[in-house]
Amino acid sequence: MYPKQSLYINGEFISGEGRKTQDIINPATQEVLGHLPHASQADLDMALQAAEAAFAKWKKSSPMDRSAILRKVGQLTRDRAQEIARNMTLDQGKPLAEALGEVVGCADHCDWHAEECRRIYGRVVLPRNPDVRQLVLKEPIGVCVAFTPWNFPYNQAIRKICAAVGAGCTVILKGPEDSPSAVMAIAQMFHDAGLPPGVLNLVWGEPAKVSDYLIRSPISRKVSFTGSVPVGKQLASLAGAHMKRVTMELGGHSPVIVFDDADIDRAATMLAKFKIRNAGQVCVSPTRFYVQKKVYDKFLAKFLDVLKSVKVGNGLDEGVEMGPLAHERRVPAIARFVEDARKRGGKIELGGDAISGKGFFFPPTVITGLKDDAMLMTEEPFGPVAPVVPFDNIDEVITRANSLPFGLSSYIFTNSLQTATKISNSIEAGMVNINHFGSALPETPFGGIKDSGIGSEGGSETFDGYLVTKFVTHI
Ligand code: NAD
User: Fold this and answer.
1) What does DSSP say about strands 385-391 and 286-292: parallel, antiparallel, or unpaired?
2) 313: helix, coil or strand?
3) Using a 6 Å cutoff on CB, does residue 336 contact ligand 1?
4) In DSSP terms, which residues pair with 35 in a beta bridge?
5) 1 belongs to a structural domain
6) What is the average pLDDT value for the chain, to the nearest integer?
7) Is the pTM of this model over 0.90?
8) Rounded Cα distance, 395 and 195, in Å
9) For a tag site, which of 221, 238, 293, 437 has the least CB within 10 Å?
């Protein structure tokens, strides 16, 4: 049974009675799983007031108590992982093993934040006058409003909630209406772990209306968003107009650079498997594949070989490696990229057309022969489509890799230390992965530069966006 979804405001689960609702659809079968209540304006006001009232107490709470709650949520995450993962596969589509990996991995995020929140330090600045004392204090910023997407429903929400709650802030989170069950499960766990009412509030609705209302409210002090660059810019502008702090985790267009001295079979196999993860609906998905001319044919052959054997289907079925796209609108969105590539004379080496029948399936697709100005080479596809193009030398490929306004992740394969060093010094990206995929751990910072965002989540930077600095001096 798919769980009943509700709002969570001031420690109460509020069902849909009398409220507008929207259907929750299984993207693999198009079956209606349930109905999601939208928050009314009165609900949003209630959430804002609850968060404001709770902040007055929560900001004074002991970091040890916050830590204990976060640790408990980590344990509950492990205990309930199977059920949460199954529901995530139902409403998001990813294969069950991937969903389970996401949920279990998030228990580590809870533990990390539980540890780090006990280490939010200030500092003492030596005075010019020996009778003066100068202190730099870190204080929670206040009520945070957070907006999280549907691609990693559990992970995206838990990172923001743990950072806000651990810092001593309160939070109103609007989760992804298309895939809500994981976020609902998080609210239930914080509730069960004893988080005081109002510290975490969960609302649903029309994204633009809810974000506009919550960001404009004088009660909110910080905005955190994960999603597309255009929406991020819109929300950051509104936040700027009201002088609110932002953390923006936005889209990317990660370059992959495979040098001719790399282990080509290993690189092609790893990249093919990474490309189909979550059906390519990953902000750090490898996106533009630049392969050095000498090894281009060898790489392409192996890459296609691995992708050809990928089993696409319902994420609950045994052996399925790639599920459907998360919702109906993503199918025409991906098809547009392929259409543009066809028009420009690109060669469809694999896939290319949506899979007919029930469900929003699009197969792994590989396209060659594109110029750098093709839509697929410049806009984020957010799906299982990979353009592969050749390059000559390192300077040329660095220029091409840095040519887009995005700067999220990047993937380099080389066996030369000199090349690895030069690339990591020159690439314009928030994350550089050389010969392996190592981003998104709780203990390491995750974030983009340029249009890909502002601020980091995770690592010892994780609380930066949720704290303000106060200077105190006395004599
Ligand atoms: P979309 O841009 O409409 O929505 C993306 C996400 O942002 C959704 O979760 C949505 O609820 C939210 N959103 C949209 N407008 C909003 C607003 N005004 N206020 C608050 N939240 C808002 O597109 P979509 O079809 O749902 O997703 C496709 C695009 O979204 C992709 O091209 C990709 O770039 C981006 N996306 C990025 C991430 C990421 O991890 N960075 C995750 C999901 C989607």
Assistant:
1) parallel
2) coil
3) no
4) 23
5) no
6) 98
7) yes
8) 53
9) 293
Token digits for 263? 């282990």
Q: Is 101 in the pocket of ligand 1 (CB under 6 A)?
A: no
Q: Are 258 and 190 in the same domain?
A: no
Q: Are residues 243 and 267 in the same domain?
A: no
* Helix, strand, coil percentages in the chain from 3-state DSSP, rounded to 5: 40, 20, 35
Indicate the pairing of strand 12-14 with strand 7-9: antiparallel
| Residue 181: inside a domain | yes
Tell me whether residue 249 is one of the annotated catalytic residues. Answer: yes
How far is Cα 200 from Cα 187, in angstroms, rounded to an integer? 7
ipTM of this complex:
0.96
User: Average pLDDT of 356-362?
Assistant: 98
Residue 449 confidence class, pLDDT cut points 50, 70, 90: very high
Q: Is 194 left (phi over 0), alpha (psi -120 to 50) or beta?
A: left
Active site residue 110: no
Distance of CA 254 to the CA centre of its chain: 14
For 392-443, give the DSSP string. Answer: --HHHHHHHHTTSS--SEEEEE-S-HHHHHHHHHH---SEEEESS-----TT
Residue nearest to atom 9 of ligand 1 (CA): 149
Q: Ligand 1, from 172, 231, 446: best to mutate by most atoms within 8 Å of Cβ?
A: 231
